[in-house]
Amino acid sequence: MGHGHDTLFLAQLSDHVYAFDIQEKALVMTRKRLIDKSPKDNVTLIHDSHEHILTHIRSFKGVVFNLGYLPGDNKAIKTTKKTTINALSFASSCLNSFRFTILVVCLSGHEGGLEERHVESFSPR
Ligand SMILES: C[S@@+](CC[C@H](N)C(=O)[O-])C[C@H]1O[C@@H](n2cnc3c(N)ncnc32)[C@H](O)[C@@H]1O
Description:
The protein has 125 residues and is an alpha/beta fold. The chain has 2 domains: 47 residues, no CATH class; 65 residues, no CATH class. The protein is built from 5 helices and 4 strands; from the N terminus they run αβαβαβαβα.
């Protein structure tokens, strides 16, 4: 979720969006952005780590990651190599169509960012 920009963008393109963030403030900002700017009611906001994706949803056609920390906020609260590998592994095990999308955007200028960017492989679980 972060500030909700990507969630709003994807909601305009998709039937339904399930958006994750571990920070309550991201849910608050995203909810406000959707109320202000989206005519659709097609987003589920989930206050949990992206690595728990399969606890919440089992059927989806694509996943989009915008990794790192909340811009303008606490840089210590961020995605990590571990959570990202877990999330990619679990998500990819449920992408059962030949036409699916995994898009990963990785900020790498902060501490730990390069390590996360250099993830070379993951396996579906
Ligand atoms: C670069 S920001 C996302 C920006 C967002 N896509 C937007 O459009 O504004 C990264 C977000 O990941 C969140 N985050 C950190 N660790 C996470 C985790 N394990 N699971 C889900 N979100 C996490 C942070 O709280 C932060 O809001």
